[in-house]
Amino acid sequence: MRYAYVNGRFCRHGDAAIHIEDRGFQFADAVYEVWSVRNSQLMDADGHFSRLSRSLGELRIPEPRTRPALERVICELLRRNRLRNGLVYLQISRGQARRDHAFPKTPITPTIVLTCKRLDFVAADARAEAGIAVITVPDQRWARCDIKTVNLLPNVLAKQAAQEAGAVEAWQVDAAGFITEGSSTNAWIVTKAGKLLTRQADHGILHGITRARILECAQKLGLEVEERAFTPQEAREAREAFLTSATSFVTPVVSIDNHVIANGQPGSLASALREAYLAEA
Ligand code: PDD
What is the C-alpha separation between 270 and 251, in angstroms, rounded? Predict the structure, then answer.
């Protein structure tokens, strides 16, 4: 049996429900977080909890639970689902109210939903060993991609376009011609000179928790790093390319828009960073 948690109660996953006038459902007026779970432990717990607080703060949604309270619920959810390896998904919306665009005048209680699902990390390892293909698509999102909201329609369309093109991820390109990030991952390249590049953490990208951890790993490995935007052409001409996220860790990219990167094999820095990250996790 699979369990979910909704507004203070554990229930069967199939019976879990929220109100039709929930503002998350009506307006995407909600934030979310995703933690990987490895050997029953939340990965990068601190980073994801801090970003959750920041996202809620940016949208002026009151924090409905303390971190220890949320951790207790997550722990129980994992226990009930007998989940040791996979991910935890948390969504908090502003709450339920009559449908009017502005915030409700009288305070409402935020809606909390927690689910978890198993992931096959062995298959993910195999994918990382082979490397993946990405395509580029125009970035059609709003101007505050640093807030982790459930407003993900452009990301959904980008990922679908990638799958229909036989690729795994779509790297979005802003109006100035620079790659922002993937539909659910941050984008990285290694230049011919061996410098690691990833876009600066501005409002154009989600400030990936894995991204921050990989920057630390790179520093420990003594790699030269620059946080700046790069173009699809720089990516095609790169020595290596890879992406990062909570669930894919570090995954090498071996082609961009059907253009093979370097020799078409996962790069050595991407593989070293994946190893270093997982060794510390
Ligand atoms: N995605 N960029 C976007 C747009 C994302 O949605 C994500 C995460 C990332 C990587 O962030 P992090 O390293 O903190 O996971 C970057 C999650 C996993 C998801 O939507 O399922």
Answer: 7
Residues 6+ apart with CB under 8 A from 274: 128, 249, 250, 251, 252
8 Å CB contact between 210 and 44: yes
Question: 136 - beta bridge partners?
Answer: 171
Is any ligand 1 atom within 6 A of the Cβ of residue 34? yes
> Ligand 1 in contact with 211 (CB < 6 A)?
yes
> Ligand 1 centroid vs 57 CA: distance in angstroms?
19
At 214, list the tokens: 């990989």
Residue nearest ligand 1's atom 16 by CA: 185
Phi, psi torsion values for 188, nearest 5 degrees: -140, 150
pLDDT string in tens for the chain (281-residue length)? 999 999 999 999 999 999 999 999 999 999 999 999 999 999 999 999 999 999 999 999 999 999 999 999 999 999 999 999 999 999 999 999 999 999 999 999 999 999 999 999 999 999 999 999 999 999 999 999 999 999 999 999 999 999 999 999 999 999 999 999 999 999 999 999 999 999 999 999 999 999 999 999 999 999 999 999 999 999 999 999 999 999 999 999 999 999 999 999 999 999 999 999 999 88
Phi and psi based region of residue 86 (left: phi greater than 0; alpha: psi -120 to 50; beta: remaining): left
- Residue 206: CB within 6 Å of ligand 1? yes
User: Which DSSP letter does residue 260 get?
Assistant: E
Neighbouring CB atoms inside 10 A of 57's CB total 13
Residues identified as active-site: 148
The number of beta carbons lying within 10 Å of the beta carbon of residue 212 is 15
What domains can you pick out in the chain, each with its CATH number?
3-118 (3.30.470.10), 124-280 (3.20.10.10)
Looking from the CA of residue 213, the nearest atom of ligand 1 is: 13
Q: Work out which ligand 1 atom sits closest to the CA atom of 186.
A: 16
